[in-house]
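Following up on my earlier thread - several people asked me to post the actual chain instead of describing it. Fair enough. Here it is, all 155 residues.
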Amino acid sequence: MSNNVFQEKSGFPKMIIILLVFQSIVAGFILFKENESPLIVIGITLPLIALFAFSFLRLNLNQNYFEYSFFPFTFKPQKIMWNEIQEIQIVNTDPIWDFGGWGVRLSKKYGKAFITGNNEIIFLKLKNGKRRSFSVNNKEELLRFFEENKISYLK
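Reply from S.P.:
Thanks for posting it. Predicted structure:
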């Protein structure tokens, strides 16, 4: 196996953040117009905006293991050794249809999923029966990593 690695960091779609900001502004104006305090809108939407703005999925693959973390949902990186993986698939999905949105999701078909803004996922079937899915932004670089390290996968 070669010494190369695949590293990627991805976050939620920026459109979600823009929609939350827009929604909070509109709701704040409506409440202000009706002589009610818009502070409740700020108290609810600011933490949501911060959550979506500062969350990120980090993948770190090398010749020994598959490592991932999804800040702030997983605080320490999780490692899966290659010999613990039964099957690897690269799948084109729809985050809304297949997972019900973005974030840490559960899917009957894809198991526990860590979904950010892309349609491409790497789907892992583990030997212990668990399934994990991760959004991938740079599919071509990931496939090159697999080929250079002779890691088999299904397209």
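Residues 14-33 form the longest helix (20 residues). That should answer part of your original question.
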